[in-house]
Amino acid sequence: MFNASLPELSAALEDGKISSVELTELFLDRIRKLDGELNAFITVDAARSLEDARSADARRSAGETGPLLGIPIAHKDIFCTQGLATTCGSKMLANFVSPYDAHIIEKFAAAGAVLLGKTNMDEFAMGSSNESSYFGFVRNPWRKTAVPGGSSGGSAAAVAARMAPAATGTDTGGSIRQPASFSGVCGLKPTYGVVSRYGMIAFASSLDQGGPLARSAADLAALLNVMAGFDARDSTSLDRPVEDYARDLSRPIAGLRIGLPREYLGDGVNGEVAARVRDAILWFESQGAKSVEITLPNTRLSVPAYYVLAPAEASSNLSRFDGVRYGHRAAKYADLYEMYCKSRGEGFGAEVKRRILVGTYVLSHGYYEAYYLQAQKIRRLIAADFTAAFTQCDMIMGPAAPTTAYEIGAMSDDPVQMYLGDIFTIPASLAGLPGLCVPCGFDAKGLPVGLQVIGPYFSEARLLNAAHQFQQATDWHQRVPPDAEIQVVR
């Protein structure tokens, strides 16, 4: 059952081969066995999960069916969940219990999915390694001394280690695609606005987007069918016709035009990563796809632009955590000002403080025009690069990250180097485009390599089709971290 796809699990439940309660107990037991070392989960409420499972079994007994009915799903701990801790990986919210559900949580509950637990993450989604969490770093299931990627590293590790059939994540500058690459799973960032941000604790509001992580592209399609949809409570939610994102999975890829940006496979990309990505592209060409060399000339400006815009929005969004209404409050203070200072000083970690300071600086008088407005102009140029590229190709392929997973602590003293690791995922985020990552091989150390596929707005079904066809011919997505490696290398 641990290696079964979502359709296979759904069929087993429908045929009565297993109940939702039994299935949930299997995954809860695996979490108990493995998560002590991996630390992929922040909160697991077994009683609540089993209550959800009993409810799903009752719904099936009453004649109801559904692709996710009774299937356990893990959720990134950035989504507000009524009656359950929602920490965002921060001391600031360590004791916060949400009074309402995020839109994504509502959608999965309506579909009958079982809430398996809340996964670990970089604090307030700020990070690329899952090392900034107040609840400790997450280990990569493929190599316990390596990071799983971030900020959705807990979700990626949970799926990779088969502690969950699938999970939710969020992607601001690559926080679904990069951990999917590092952890050897599949991850999808939808077009900005396709998935509601209601109840998703904000980092950078013009960039944040929820999405799924799973074993395969077909599973991603099933999850996105549940997650997507208009929500009037989110002003950025797009009111569009309902789509079936699995509709094109079997579509032939002959004639597909694949854009290969010269900026994505040049200097700075690890040789083994580049080789595995080229191997994947050769397979597409063998199936009748055509490669087209393109250029995205402003790619080099994407990281500096992002690290102006995202911290600026974070500075504004995180101002609400002041120790007054909810969240951490300092135990001792002399006056209101000291309460603010101590509460925020104690509640936020180093990476969050760093980004708040940067964001406040670039928004301050005298620097707004020099930094923030210039970054917005660069953002428009990056979007224009993609628009021009898609006149020559149907989708763009390249690496999701320039390297495979690095060792825990390797980037701790050099945050800028860590930021540069997002250079291939940030451009699509700045443009609001959909992008997905699927496994395409391993390096010499046995660490996964991810192929990133980026498409025009609302091309999720076409991206999933390309990824699904690739996975019908390869088994990279079916590889499982050996259980013998569960022991931590010290």
Short description:
This protein is α/β, with parallel strands linked by helices and 490 residues long. The protein is built from 15 helices and eleven strands. The strands form two sheets. The protein has an eight-stranded mixed sheet with strand order 4-6-5-10-11-9-7-8, sandwiched between helices.
Mean pLDDT: 96
**Beta strand %:** 5-15%
The ordered string of helix (H) and strand (E) elements is: HHEHEHEHEHEEHEHEHHHHEHHEEH
What structural class do you assign from the helix and strand content?
Answer: alpha/beta
Q: Count of DSSP E strands?
A: 11
Q: Which strand order do you get reading across the main beta sheet?
A: 4-6-5-10-11-9-7-8
Give the number of helices.
15
Poorly predicted runs are 484-490
User: What characteristic shape results from the CA principal axes?
Assistant: globular
Helix content: 25-40%
Query: First CA to last CA: what distance?
Result: 31 Å
Compute the CA-based radius of gyration.
21 Å
Q: Describe the sheet with the most strands.
A: 8 strands, mixed
